[in-house]
Amino acid sequence: MLVNALLSFRLDKLYVIMTVNVLGVLMIVQLAYLLGLAVVYAYRGNKDAAIFSTGFAIFAVISLSELVLYFTSADSFHLFWWKWGVVAFILSLIIILGRGFARNYEQALAYSRELEQFNNTAQRSEKMEIISELAASVAHEVRNPLQVTRGFLQILGERSGRKEKEYLDMAVQELDRASLIITDFLTFAKPGLEEVDVFELSGELRHVAGILVPLANLQGGTIELKLQEGLYVLGSPAKFKQAFINLIKNSVESLHEEGLITVSAWKSGQHIIISVKDNGEGMKPSELSRLGEPYYSNKTKGTGLGLMVTFRIVEAMNGTIHFHSKKGQGTEVIVKLPADHSK
User: Fold this and answer.
1) The listed CATH number (1.10.10.250, 3.10.129.10, 3.30.1380.20, 3.30.565.10) that belongs to domain 197-338
2) Does 185 score more than 70 pLDDT?
3) What is the SS3 string spanning 48-104?
4) pTM more than 0.90
5) pLDDT tens-digit series, residues 51-73
6) Rounded Cα–Cα distance for residues 204 and 229 (Å)
7) How far is 193 from 54, CA to CA, in rounded Å?
8) Is 6 strand, coil or helix?
9) By CB neighbour count within 10 A (0-12 exposed, 13-18 middle, 19+ buried), where does 254 fall?
């Protein structure tokens, strides 16, 4: 333009060719190329890309159509409709921006929920730590006097008559029950797996089921095993059996006539999944939400220690435990443990 003006507009024909014909063709090629890219990105499934592509496609189609009409029309043609294409393109950008704001809001809500969950977990851990220290202290102080008392009762029983011996035996049984509660206290307070080893859990679950089958039969129920072989985990076999004796025993105690407990174990990716499912009385959502709380039990004579110990043992094995239950339909416990690949 500057050169043409300096030459007194003697290059008008060349100027028209360069600014109208050549530039117009370049614009057509560029719009067609960008339209193709937009279609490709939309085809790949990105929603924002699809919205952007739609808005840009409208703009590109209108602009291309007008440019083609401009070059092919014999009469003078005024470019007008491309403005509506620009409006459509701007609207698509506004929609993408709105979607971005919505995503940011959803992320903020998710972060808020995660923070609340983290705070609850931290508070629970702090509470459990305090209770653990108290439990360990009380258990150690009480266990020794109980053992001494038990010994004296046994000596008296050997020197007493039949009626007195019966009462003394009842007292010994109650002391043994108190000793088991103290053992649960200590396990809850210090669930560390002292004898850690790699073991095959299907065999351990068969052992646990064998122990509890008579109890299940007394309740009118049965225990069914569906165990995959070759499932190895790292931990203490004794503590593992203790945890699942607690879980399966809870299921047995919830059974009615013709009750069924199904114990399943299988491998899923890098984890071992263990399911204990029963068709017992089940639990209400209010009861389900309190499981694992210190000393909560929905049994008449329960202390809640058994389930607390189970939670701590699973936690010590770097696992997770979840409960699913409906009142009148039964309960399922899902335990997830890291698989060991050393064998």
Assistant:
1) 3.30.565.10
2) no
3) HHHHHHHHHHHHHHHHHHHHHHHHHCCCCCCCCCHHHHHHHHHHHHHHHHHHHHHHH
4) no
5) 777 777 777 777 777 767 766 76
6) 12
7) 60
8) helix
9) buried
